[in-house]
Amino acid sequence: MLRLIGLSKSYKAGDKALSDVSLDVPKSQIVGLIGPSGAGKSTLIRCINRLVEPTEGEIRLGEVDLVKLGTAELRQARRRIGMIFQEYALVERLTVMENVLSGRLGYVPFWRSWMRCYPPQDIRRAYELLDRVGLMEHADKRADALSGGQRQRGGIARVLAQEPELLRVDEPTASPDPNTSRQIMRLLTEICAERGLPAIVNIHDVPLAQQFMQRIVGLRAGRVVFDGAPDALTESALTAIYGAQDWHAMRQGDEEQADAEADTARRLAEVPA
């Protein structure tokens, strides 16, 4: 379980990115973080493994308060926390398999990583993960030969090779292809259920969050203003999160996108077989 207790982050200029955030994320639960730009979503995700140092509060993973760890202990603890990035974080000149094996860097001696000489059990595990995310046939391709959705799957496999106890996910649905976005979210939810992994997902697509997240947390100006089930995310709750003007503009954009997708589907249906 991840537990945030009174988490706050202030910068020297006096700006407060997070203010007294308290959350419990139990095993297997997927939490979607939503909110306008500058609400503190990315700061919260980065505070969890102290890429951003919190000003106050506790960050507990299991029984360990990550805030109190020294440098060496924190390095060990970070192996337990996986991060799936919006931009995939793959090394383009390496093969897909080599990228997945890089998830083991925290567990192998430097010489093994330098020589790319990983233990046999790590290699077997990497193949299993590639098969799980649907990339087995691409194992020997360079990462830059993959599509955006395939790169996202490669990033997921790399993080799973790390054997994390918690996933942090930053904008996994940034792909302009709605179908790919849904496939990635479905894969993430299945993997979290299979492995009992809790996950915090920074997501901008509210309808997609409502479809796949088990719980929604809305941030505004660094504070939690909503915490509940997706079906409790009413228009008044969304207005509290985004503000009336921002929410109405976002809803209009979603409606226009839905109309465009429906129009594309109709056009495809009219094409002779």
TrEMBL record:
<keyword id="KW-0547">Nucleotide-binding</keyword>
<dbReference type="InterPro" id="IPR012693">
    <property type="entry name" value="ABC_transpr_PhnC"/>
</dbReference>
<dbReference type="InterPro" id="IPR027417">
    <property type="entry name" value="P-loop_NTPase"/>
</dbReference>
<dbReference type="InterPro" id="IPR003593">
    <property type="entry name" value="AAA+_ATPase"/>
</dbReference>
<dbReference type="GO" id="GO:0005524">
    <property type="term" value="F:ATP binding"/>
</dbReference>
<keyword id="KW-0813">Transport</keyword>
<keyword id="KW-1278">Translocase</keyword>
<feature type="domain" description="ABC transporter">
    <location>
        <begin position="2"/>
        <end position="246"/>
    </location>
</feature>
<keyword id="KW-0472">Membrane</keyword>
<feature type="compositionally biased region" description="Basic and acidic residues">
    <location>
        <begin position="263"/>
        <end position="273"/>
    </location>
</feature>
<keyword id="KW-0067">ATP-binding</keyword>
<keyword id="KW-1003">Cell membrane</keyword>
<dbReference type="InterPro" id="IPR003439">
    <property type="entry name" value="ABC_transporter-like_ATP-bd"/>
</dbReference>
<keyword id="KW-0997">Cell inner membrane</keyword>
<dbReference type="Pfam" id="PF00005">
    <property type="entry name" value="ABC_tran"/>
</dbReference>
<dbReference type="InterPro" id="IPR050086">
    <property type="entry name" value="MetN_ABC_transporter-like"/>
</dbReference>
<feature type="region of interest" description="Disordered">
    <location>
        <begin position="253"/>
        <end position="273"/>
    </location>
</feature>
<protein>
    <submittedName>
        <fullName>Phosphonate ABC transporter ATP-binding protein</fullName>
    </submittedName>
</protein>
